[in-house]
Design brief:
This protein is an alpha/beta fold and about 450 residues long. It has 17 helices and 15 strands. α2 runs antiparallel to α16 and α16 packs antiparallel against α17.
Length: about 450
């Protein structure tokens, strides 16, 4: 039976804006208050997704969240008509309005953690939406994320959906941004590498000082239990607190893996060698650990270029390629390293560059934009086929973006009541294109 790793990219929502909401994310903070271009952002994302589909990859899309989130604004005391709720929030609590207008669900690496059927005891693909409790603007996503995942992977015979973890700091869960599956082949049992920032229940454990550690060990362990993973298929590894304090807010900003390759910066982890030895033992197969030294690429260059927030994909011919943002081309040290990497005899033979600057300026690169789902051909056939990228869907979604999206949006524009109508009209049409049913509050 054929095996695939599908990538499901988050469609950029109509309220894509730069409000600088993510403390610890250098790009998000440094570009705060700039005008954004939602139309360009959505089209950049679609271009990347279509290009991977054209390479022969299984490529899908995930719908964005409803924004502005008037449901949350009403939960915290704003009342009246939709327009009145929006205007009251803008006047009385603009920071809360900004949080409820964030388009951050575009970064679907934070949507959920996924374990393939080859790893789970019940032989199903398991999904647990991330609770994202560390950031207000993201903590309001999980219920709708769950609805969208259930409408996309909508076959109980093959897919198992869990509720997100308890909404408490002890169980801070950031999804696949801190999870990498290593394997010899997508269809064979592998090792699921859970990377955490701190242990919430061990006061003596190392943790960052300047920026928060968003993923806890306890959350990672809980997801492994929910997904029915055996101890021998899990490795729990701590991210280096020092790099978190340098702006590495998720593991996918400092390391990325695919099959039997783990591409990482030498400062990425604690207890690196002992944990790599555990991975080798549990994999029982050849592993390629590709280390980038600080002398080759500094942490600052890695964060600014998102060298490690790239995708490593296995092409149909068996070669691996890195999908990188054009920012990597524009950084001399990073560009030189990537040119050298393809000559070193590792499985990575190509680098493909894509312009995703609208996403990059808000703190997310190519790897942030996708949720990886390893499946066999029966499971791919069980996915909602209307969400899988092809020429027809690409055309329909580009027409949809042209019809509904603004080409300029400032933080001040978030108080415009017309944005509610525009966003809901767009999302209602999208659910019909993707045949998702009623996944949003306004559709209930």
């Amino acid at each position: 039976m054929k095996q695939f790793e599908a990538n499901f990219d988050g469609l950029v929502g109509p309220t894509h804006n730069y409000a600088g909401l993510s403390f610890g994310n250098v790009a998000s903070y440094s570009n705060a208050a700039q005008a954004s271009n939602p139309k360009a952002a959505a089209k950049q994302g679609l271009q990347k997704a279509k290009a991977l589909a054209d390479l022969g990859m299984v490529q899908g899309v995930l719908a964005p969240q409803e924004r502005p989130d008037l449901y949350t604004l009403r939960r915290i005391g704003f009342s009246g008509s939709d327009a009145e709720v929006l205007q009251k929030a803008a006047k009385q609590a603009p920071a809360l309005l900004n949080a409820c207008c964030s388009a951050s669900s575009m970064w679907t690496a934070n949507a959920a953690t996924v374990s393939p059927s080859a790893d789970t005891r019940d032989g199903k693909v398991h999904f647990t939406p991330a609770n994202l409790v560390d950031k207000l603007h993201r903590s309001i996503e999980p219920l709708t994320t769950g609805n969208i995942l259930k409408a996309t992977f909508n076959n109980d015979r093959h897919f198992k959906h869990h509720l997100h973890l308890p909404e408490h700091a002890n169980f801070g869960d950031e999804g696949a941004a801190n999870h990498t599956r290593l394997c010899s082949d997508y269809g064979k049992a592998g090792v699921e590498l859970f990377v955490y920032g701190q242990s919430a229940t061990n006061p003596n454990a190392p943790k960052p000082v300047k920026y928060p550690a968003r993923q806890t060990l306890e959350a990672s362990q809980a997801v492994a239990r929910l997904h029915q993973l055996e101890d021998e298929s899990c490795v729990f590894m701590q991210q280096n607190p020092d790099v978190i304090d340098q702006g590495v807010f998720h593991n996918d900003v400092i390391a990325v893996g695919n099959q039997n390759v783990l591409f990482y910066h030498e400062q990425a982890f604690l207890d690196t060698e002992s944990k790599f030895a555990e991975i080798r033992r549990k994999m029982n197969a050849e592993m390629h650990f590709i280390k980038v030294s600080t002398a080759q690429v500094s942490i600052d260059d890695a964060v600014r270029s998102y060298l490690f927030n790239t995708q490593i994909i296995t092409l149909p011919n068996g070669e691996m390629a890195i999908v990188a943002p054009t920012d990597c081309q524009e950084n001399p040290a990073v560009f030189a390293y990537l040119n050298e990497l393809t000559t070193l005899g590792t499985p990575i033979k190509q680098v493909k560059y894509f312009d995703v600057k609208q996403s990059m300026q808000n703190g997310g690169g190519p790897a942030c934009l996708r949720l990886r789902v390893a499946m066999n051909e029966l499971e791919v056939a069980a996915v909602n086929q209307n969400t899988l990228m092809n020429d027809m869907l690409f055309g329909r979604l580009n027409t949809w973006v042209e019809k509904h999206y603004r080409d300029r949006l400032t933080v001040a524009d978030l108080a415009d009541p017309q944005l509610i109508t525009e966003s809901r009209t767009a999302l209602d049409e999208l659910t019909q294109i993707l045949k998702l049913g009623s996944v949003y509050q306004f559709q209930k």
